[in-house]
Amino acid sequence: MADVNRGNRPLSPHLTIYRPQLTSMTSIFVRITGNALIAGALLIVWWLLAASTSPESFATADAVMTSWFGKLVMLGSIWALWYHTLGGIRHLVWDYAIGLDIPTAYKMGWALIIGSFVLTVITVVVL
């Protein structure tokens, strides 16, 4: 009986009428970067295991890590780590019910985006 009008009901909120907010997008990217950090972590674990296995294995892993692809993945991992960390701090602040009004939430969202890029550049310059 409940399935009679199932095909006629609109989805809510529908993607064609829903405008994503900065806060929702930055929150989604926190989750995405958390999962993407696994790729960088796997490369580092592979590199460390290869270093403890044999010189040939290490040479292969080191060639991948020092290639343009490896450097790009590591740069992306550095950015993802900063983004994910700053997003986690923002969520901790929100857990204390601080900064939940819309103007402050948007300022925190932009601080998250800009801060992650600035901290990535500082990290790359220092390392």
Short description:
With 127 residues, this protein is mostly helical. It has helices spanning 22-53, 55-65, 68-95, 102-126.
Q: How is the main sheet built?
A: none
Fourth-level CATH superfamily? Fumarate reductase/succinate dehydrogenase, transmembrane subunit
Order of helices and strands: HHHH
Question: Radius of gyration in whole Å, from Cα?
Answer: 21 Å
Q: State the share of residues found in helices, binned by percent.
A: over 70%
Going by helix content, strand content and strand pairing, the class is mainly alpha
State the end-to-end CA separation: 64 Å
- How large is the share of residues in beta strands? under 5%
- Total of domains: 1
Mean pLDDT: 90
Overall, the morphology is extended
**Uncertain spans:** none
Query: What's the number of extended β-strand segments?
Result: 0
Tell me the layout of helices and strands.
Layout (H helix, E strand, L loop, with lengths): L21 H32 L1 H11 L2 H28 L6 H25 L1
Give the tags:
0% strand, single chain, 4 helices, 76% helix, 127 residues, mainly alpha, extended, 3 helical TM bundles of succinate and fumarate reductases
Structural write-up:
With 127 residues, the protein is mainly α. The chain has one domain (22-126): Up-down Bundle (3 helical TM bundles of succinate and fumarate reductases). It has helices at residues 22-53, 55-65, 68-95, 102-126. The protein is extended.
